């Protein structure tokens, strides 16, 4: 083998006519790479939420950061964004349940 194969165990990819090789990675190295990718994904998600929240404030939507993050997560799960917008509009129209006085037990 080549000096590369001595440093990194490798296997030939089955059925690969070009004879390319795949480097086998240790589980610890894979976990480190995965953790770094998770950190990068978290940073990107934070930056995206920051941008969406800034735009939301410019448009005066009245959405707080948490609500906006929930709406984005629902869209990521495949919920129709137009349906979500309709629900948000409807909720903004209705008086808050907390603002409606509840009768006490002795009234």
Notes on the structure:
This protein is mainly alpha-helical. The chain has a domain at 32-95. Helix content is 58%, strand content 6%. Strands 1-2 form a two-stranded antiparallel sheet. The radius of gyration is 26 Å and the shape is elongated. Residues 1-6 have low confidence and may be disordered. Pfam families: MOZART1 (PF12554). It comes from Eucalyptus grandis.
The end-to-end span amounts to 89 Å
H and E string: HEEHHH
Instruction: List the total number of helices.
Output: 4
- Shape type: elongated
Q: What assembly state would you assign to the polypeptide chains in this entry?
A: single chain
As a percent range, the share of helical residues equals 55-70%
Let me know the average pLDDT. Answer: 78
Biggest β-sheet description: 2 strands, antiparallel
Note the beta-strand portion.
5-15%
Strand order of the largest sheet: 1-2
Q: Extract low-pLDDT stretches.
A: 1-6
| Structural class determined from secondary elements | mainly alpha
Specify Rg, calculated over alpha carbons. Answer: 26 Å
Q: How many β strands by DSSP?
A: 2
In short:
By secondary structure, the chain is mainly α. 58% of the residues lie in helices and 6% in strands.
Give the topology, please.
Elements: H1 3-7, E1 10-12, E2 21-23, H2 27-58, H3 65-76, H4 81-93
Antiparallel strand pairs: 1-2
